[in-house]
Design brief:
By secondary structure, the protein is an all-alpha fold. 94% of the residues lie in helices and 0% in strands.
Amino acid sequence: MDGENKMSNENNHHSVRKLTCTIFFVTFFSLSAGMFIGFLVAPQSGARFRKSLISWLNEMVEKGKFTLEEAKVYGSEFLERSREKAENFSSKTMDNDKD
């Protein structure tokens, strides 16, 4: 019975995670599409629109680069902490085996 409950909980967590990812993707896509359509129908001349569009795209690229760099730093810090914990666990296990 306990195994069934555990499996049910895991399936529920997976479903919630999948739903959350789907909602995030749809929201992000909708916002992006809305902004793009807003740019298209904005009352600006073609040259001014292209200039503002290029500026906006460059800003998004820079934000994306910054986010990737943050992710790299966070990932490397997480990896280092995980490595230290694994080494500590390994050394404790080895010490227990010697005793």
